[in-house]
Amino acid sequence: MGLREAIGRAFPFARWSVLRMGLGARTLLRDWQVGDGREAALRDFVLANAQRGNIDDAIHTIDRFAYSRSFLINVGDEKGAILDAAVTRANPKLLLELGTYCGYSALRTLRAAPPGARLVSIEFNAENAAIARAIFEHAGVAHRVTIVHGTLGDGGKTVQTLTERHGFAAEQLDFAFIDHAKDAYLPDLELILRERWLHRGSVVVADNVKVPGAPEYHAFMKRNEGTLFRTREHSTHVEYQTFLKDIVLESDFLGAAALSNESQVPARQV
């Protein structure tokens, strides 16, 4: 471990990249980029330093960048291990990710998934999508992941793309990872439930449930514990530091029969 990385681990909030992210919070929430070029710098760092075609080295290089160069808002190494285990347990064929950012969680997901698995990742920011594609290509996994530019809440455009082009249909989705706009966690989960993409045993993982926080999503899972989902609550830390506590939720869907209670999921908007 280099000196810069050691300092980054020991004093994460003293780093300029963390302070700069706080100062640019409005830009981050609007554009899903910090606004100081760190996402593009990450792409260049991975392409220059990670062994081509080596997914493990790509993941390690992103972690190294986040500790030694600029703080990143991806899931990080500690919570990434929780994601890895959930994907391995689900043994999925079709996976959905909400929030590509620069592709880190997708890399971890693909590494843990079976060789024939397909990941579709939804990303709001076109620049992030381009950065992630470059990293996927360098890591040798571009053929296993498709980035769709949009959001699930865009009035049906993205849902139509998923159903018509990517095989999303009733009970075909095995795994979903939610890590995008926190106020969209619950509406997007409700949309997934209305579309009936999940089957009994499908797994849904949500990051940052405590910080920045997704209280409505958290309350929904608590309210529907044992009827719609069975949830494990992982106590962990915000990415790339050990001061702030966070929560990752890992929820097993209990089957379409549970959706017969119409009060649990709002009706489709028409």
Describe what this molecule looks like in 3D:
- The chain has 270 residues and is of the alpha/beta class.
- It has a domain at 74-260: 3-Layer(aba) Sandwich (Rossmann fold).
- It is 45% helix and 18% strand.
- The protein has twelve helices and seven strands.
- The chain has helices at residues 3-10, 16-23, 25-31, 38-49, 55-68, 76-90, 104-112, 126-139, 157-165, 185-195, 209-213, 215-223; strands spanning 94-98, 118-123, 145-149, 173-178, 198-206, 229-237, 245-253.
- The chain has a seven-stranded mixed β-sheet, with helices on both faces.
- Helix 1 (3-10) crosses helix 5 (55-68), helix 4 packs across helix 5 and helix 6 (76-90) runs parallel beside helix 7 (104-112).
- The radius of gyration is 18 Å and the shape is globular.
- It starts with a helix and ends in a 17-residue tail after the last strand.
- The model has no long low-confidence stretch (mean pLDDT 89).
Question: What order do the SSEs take from the amino end to the carboxyl end, as H and E?
Answer: HHHHHHEHEHEHEHEHHEE
- The residue fraction in helices comes out at 40-55%
In CATH, the topology of the domain at 74-260 is named Rossmann fold
Reported CATH architecture of the domain at 74-260: 3-Layer(aba) Sandwich
Strand content: 15-25%
**Treating each run of at least 4 consecutive H or I residues as one helix, how many helices?**
12
Largest pleated sheet: 7 strands, mixed
Strand order, sheet with most strands = 3-2-1-4-5-7-6
What would CATH call the class of the domain at 74-260? Alpha Beta
Shape: globular
Which oligomeric form is depicted? single chain
Number of E-state strands = 7
Q: Provide the structure class.
A: alpha/beta
Mean model confidence by pLDDT: 89
Taking all Cα atoms into account, the compactness measure Rg is 18 Å
